[in-house]
Amino acid sequence: MTVNPNSPINPIAPPQQKSSGCLKYGLIGCVIVLAIVAIVAAVIMAVAFGAIKSTDAYKEARHRAVTDPRVVAALGAPVEAGFFVTGKISVVNRTGTAIMNFPISGSRQKASVRAEATLDAEGWHYSVLRVEPQHGPPIDLLPAQ
Question: Model-level pTM?
Answer without folding.
Answer: 0.70
